[in-house]
Write a structure and sequence with these properties.
Number of strands: 17
Structural class: alpha/beta
Strand order of the largest sheet: 12-11-8-7-13-14-17
Number of domains: 2
Radius of gyration: 19 Å
Largest sheet: 7 strands, mixed
CATH architecture of the largest domain: 3-Layer(aba) Sandwich
CATH topology of the largest domain: Rossmann fold
Helix content: 10-25%
Distance between the termini: 35 Å
Shape: globular
Length: 296
């Protein structure tokens, strides 16, 4: 039986044939994929994803987080890493080819005016939702003060640039930033354990704690954290926010089959007002309050 909420969510999703405009490879088997998808570009909001048909030889789709949109030009952009058969097939698709997308899917991030100092943390393929959210803040929340931390254990899919922004709490030499964020006027820093020049040597949460410790108490109360990345990273981010008493939203990464709530193959246990419940990451998420997913 399909619930009213599930049906309402499905009615916001479109299926669209999309032409590949850009498909660029980066070290670490990472790819930036930009497609012409006018309908999805008009509907998508930060935190949502698309379910992509990778190729005729593989019927099952693969979920990819949306990284950027241009609703005027009608394109949608993704960043993905080759993990298995689906993304390996997708990586072979070339510019000019048509792929089929279903989306946008999922519950998005929600910004709160009482927390204008936003800390965005993305790890690996969890970087795209943070880019999308930063772009949304830039365009629609001019009074917000975002700071973006990105972590990766493979080379970043961009050439880091020394930041023009002085950020409190940054250790000496931690000046590497994402060029796109610099162009947008948003401070960012990079973290890795791989010794990349300009990056913080350590975990994203260690760098985030340095930043939080450098804030005055009234500033810290304005912070809300948004994160996407591997489960251990999200768990560490959640613990950090408990320690500082900060609100936090996390976007979960799970394997999916249908991605529209029908198969229940992506369920996770979430704490609710009436006790634990199993929620579908695809349509009940992927964004959840961290406190409902990770115990203090």
């Amino acid at each position: 039986m399909v619930s009213k909420t599930q049906k309402a969510h499905r009615e916001t999703i479109v299926v669209e044939d999309a032409e590949i405009l850009i498909h660029q490879g980066f070290p670490g088997q990472q790819y930036v994929l930009r497609v012409k998808a006018p309908e999805i570009s008009q509907r998508a909001v930060p935190g949502q994803f698309a379910h992509i048909h990778c190729g005729a030889e593989l019927p099952m789709r693969r979920p990819l987080s949306i990284m950027r949109i241009d609703s005027n030009a009608g394109w949608v952009e993704f960043l993905y890493k080759v993990f298995g058969a689906g993304t390996a097939i997708l990586s072979q698709r070339t510019e000019g080819e048509i792929i089929n997308l279903m989306g946008p899917i999922g519950q998005p991030f929600v910004l709160h005016e009482e927390h204008p100092r936003t800390l965005l943390i993305g790890g690996g393929v969890g970087i795209p939702p943070m880019v999308f959210l930063a772009d949304n803040i830039k365009e629609n929340h001019k009074d917000f003060k975002p700071f973006v931390i990105m972590g990766s254990e493979v080379p970043f899919p961009f050439d880091a640039r020394p930041s023009q922004f002085v950020v409190p709490g940054m250790p000496p030499g931690v000046i590497g930033a994402m060029p796109l964020m610099e162009d947008w006027g948003i401070p960012s820093r990079l973290a890795s354990t791989q010794g990349y020049v300009g990056s913080f040597e350590g975990y994203v949460t260690d760098l985030a704690r340095s930043w939080l410790d450098a804030l005055e108490a009234p500033q810290r109360k304005q912070v809300e954290v948004f994160a996407c990345g591997p489960h251990p990273m999200l768990e560490a981010v959640a613990k950090m926010t408990y320690d500082y008493g900060l609100p936090c939203q996390v976007s979960l990464e799970e394997f999916m089959a249908c991605a529209v709530g029908g198969c229940a193959g992506c369920v996770v246990e979430v704490q609710t007002d009436t006790g634990p419940a199993m929620k579908r990451v695809c349509v009940d998420g992927p964004v959840f309050e961290a406190s409902t997913v990770f115990s203090p």
